[in-house]
Amino acid sequence: MNQVATPHVPNEILTTKLQKPPSRQLMVNRNNLIELINRNQDKKLCLVSAPVGFGKTTLVSQWAASSNKPVAWLSLDERDNDVIRFLTYLIEAIRVIFPTAGKGLLIALRSPQMPQINSVLSQLINEMDALQKAFTIVIDDYHLINNPSINEGLCLLVNQMPFNMNLIIISRDIPKLPLSKLRAKNQLIELNIKDLRFSDIESEYFLNQVMGLSLTKKHIVELEKRTEGWVVGLQLAALSIHGHKDITRFVETFSGSHSFIVDYLVDEVLSQLPEDIHIFLMATSILDRFSAPLCEAILSNDLNQSNANSEKIIEYLERNNLFIIPLDNERCWYRYHHLFMDLLRIRLEKNRKRLSLNYDIIPELHRRASFWYENNHFILEAFYHAVEANDIESASRLVEGGGVPLLYRGAATPVIKWLESLPTSVLDPNPSLRVLYGSALLFVGRVGDVEKNLGMAEYFLNIFPESEKNRNLKGHISAIRATLAIPQNDLAGIIKFSNHAIENLSPLNLSVIAATKWTLGYAYQMQVNNKMARQFYEEALKSSQAIGHFIVTILASIGLGNVFESENQLQLAKNAYKKVLDLAGHLSFPASSVAYLGLSRIAYQQNCIQEAQELIQKAIQLAQHLQNMDILAVCEIFHAKLKLAQGQISETMKLLKKASQSLHENNFSKNMYKVAQVEVRALLYLNDIPSAEHVAKTYDLPIEQIRVHLASDQPTQALSKLESMPHDHSMEILALRARAFFQAGNMEKAVVPLLIALEIAKTEGHIRVFLDEGAPMKMLLLSALQYEIMPDQISYLLEHFIEKAALVDVLTQRELDVLRLIAQGFTNQQICKTLFVSLNTIKGHNQRIFSKLQVKSRTEAILRAQELHLLT
User: Is 835 exposed, middle or buried (0-12, 13-18, 19+ CB in 10 A)?
Assistant: First the structure.
């Protein structure tokens, strides 16, 4: 895990990216195309693709304004190529129309162990399907996405889209989606250049009504012909005509390709504007989105020569149709038409020296934009502009995010890209950047490069004078190293580095302190020091909840759940695991899988086998999507234990084999002992004591060796080994002690651990720990009942034993005789001779035995009989 997590910070989301562009009062109504989209709402995908300037977004926003079903809108930009950012905005777009959707997904996206994009989208699809309400998602400017992972994720979304959802993609080019398959299934509607071109009638309305001209039919036809219905070409031509007295001559000389038209007409348009408007356009072109206050912030007096008010300039631009697009209904935020913005930026580059002789104007504009965004709590945008300004100091500060690093805000990729772009002459003498670099690399899983950066930072910190800032950096280095020690299971290292971190970290660095206390809790838990583990988990939980540090809250809750389980506090453990699911959501996210596994273990202990089965299935389903984790194998091992409790020995062995292969293939062989623990139980179930003893000794499993001794009726050896075990209140140890003393004939000593176990079971609902000890425990409970030891609790437990062995009563004595002979390997003919009955009679007995035992073969019958102790 990384060192800092993220609370939800609403201001980080640019809500203008999630709003449908509002309609203008005067615009060309494209009713025929809108009706075409409406008629095809049963199709999965509507693709609107055409080059720049053909009115794609305007058309879809017109349709959305008239749609009778909810529409989620997402406008993309180049920064959305980061997977976390893309998914975050996609989910936030959906939350605009369904506010309760995707809460757990958003938290998972801030996790250092982020689930795969397909896992997130699969869960999102499930959530959308459950809504059972028809809606549409619009993704605008998809041509800006070049990340293959995002495109693969969108393919999944298109392929598995629920029936209540459809998708509209707006793009300049044809995206790499399964279009041919969709066409074949009649699940695709496509609108392209030929559909989007203005007709003669639309051109006339646009030029004379929208643009306010009074052109003749001849002029309109000629312009429409020369622009080929290209909307932006018509718009540029109309703006240019405003400055020409001889309209006929202008129209006659107006020709050329689209690129020529743009170059010519932009010059024409801009040359007609007042100087202050021209400067405003160039300066604000650095902004992907802008508002009047933001424009004021970047336009100082040396640029805005007439001191004009930005709000009035924006009104002027909108009134004159100068390629400005409102992004909200309140008309607070705007953007330029993409083509116009690109040309303005080229123009700004050409005029950068003319605009300011004292400094380089472009970095200065970005610096001012960064300052405004930071003051208005848009930290991500502030960082992007600081990078463009080459303001290393501000970018470094902004990455820290005021205690919530940008790594968790969808900016891991751009942060690393920025750090990689810096020369070593900048990085090396700046330890804070090196520590940041190491933390970012750890976040994205590039563990091999982390220590190099930490070592370089440490080298310079040892040279620099001691200061509070440097001490904090040293503490952060140790915190990262503690995290690196976790996969190595270096418990001593985790404790050493964590303690050093806490000694040096600034008291204000709460997020790193909280995470470090979690690492300490983890290490002590692995050392079976529950007292210390619980202390640090609770401290981590308290700190993380205070600052909204969700990831540490989740991990500390899991840790406490584990500790509570080991201390027999099943209800507290259940609450902790449920808290994890409330925060993490039901994702293929390590925390979710572990929480479901914990809940399954608790259900098993309370003998709710069906519930335990359902929970472990959920854990396995989620764990299958995780990479480089042993969670899947651990879940399968417990699943095998569940199958064993149900008497399904063949399924048990299959699952153990599968888990074993998974552990070996993924280099987690150190966990093979977990497979061996269940394997010993399975072998004892089959009464294969020699094999069980061999496995228990090979893997040095003391508890399993005790079970082998008891199964071999060697209670003295079992008690000898139990003496070396901790004298704690582990339910399993208590049950084994009671059973061992009872088998040794010492009822007086057996009662002591049994009474403790019964008291705990009465409060927490333990049942399975008694049932798993089989007939010896049943006899012990019956004996204890005679001594009137907790009679109500013992009677309650004995009811579960009776339920487990109920089949004994329904098998007749003759059927039991036949079953025992089957178990000895007798054929039907041999059984006939032994019992002096006909073959048909034996076949009848077999059918009834199989039916009562709910099995289909002799082998299954033998295994089921052993589980029910029918052969003893």
Answer: middle
Least confident of 73-87, 241-255, 511-525, 845-859: 241-255
Side chain identity, residue 643:
K
Phi, psi for residue 279 in degrees, rounded to 5 = -65, -40
- Residue 163: exposed, middle, or buried by beta-carbon count in 10 A (0-12, 13-18, 19+)? exposed
- Strand, helix or coil at 391? coil
* Calpha distance 96→195 (Å, rounded): 30
Cα torsion at 520, 525, 527, 532 (round to 10°)?
Answer: 60
Confidence of residue 347 (pLDDT cuts 50, 70, 90): confident
Show the DSSP H helices in 285-360 as ranges: 292-298, 310-319, 338-350, 352-355
**CA–CA dist 282, 361 (Å, integer):** 11
Asked if 562 and 598 touch (Cβ cutoff 8 Å), the reply is yes
* pLDDT for the residue 808: 43
C-alpha 798/C-alpha 292 separation (Å) is 77
Tell me if 741 sits within 8 A of 719, measured CB to CB: yes
Q: Residue 166 is inside which H or E element, if any?
A: strand 165-171
Give CA–CA dist 597/561, Å, rounded: 11
Q: What percent of the chain has pLDDT over 70?
A: 92
The confidence band for 3, taking pLDDT boundaries of 50, 70 and 90, is: very low
Query: Both tokens of residue 10?
Result: 């609403």
Nearest to 520 by CA among 506, 540, 545: 540
How many whole angstroms separate alpha carbon 859 and alpha carbon 735? Answer: 31
544 vs 560: CA distance, rounded Å:
14
* Helical (H) or strand (E) element with 291: strand 290-291
* Long-range contacts formed by 454-460: CB under 8 A, 24+ apart: 454/480, 454/481, 456/427, 456/428, 456/431, 457/431, 457/432, 458/431, 460/428, 460/429, 460/430, 460/431, 460/434
pLDDT in tens, 580-618: 988 876 665 677 889 999 999 999 999 999 999 999 999
Express each pLDDT in 803-832 by its tens digit: 554 444 457 777 888 888 888 888 998 888
The reported pLDDT for the residue numbered 2 is 39
- Chain centre distance of CA 498: 27
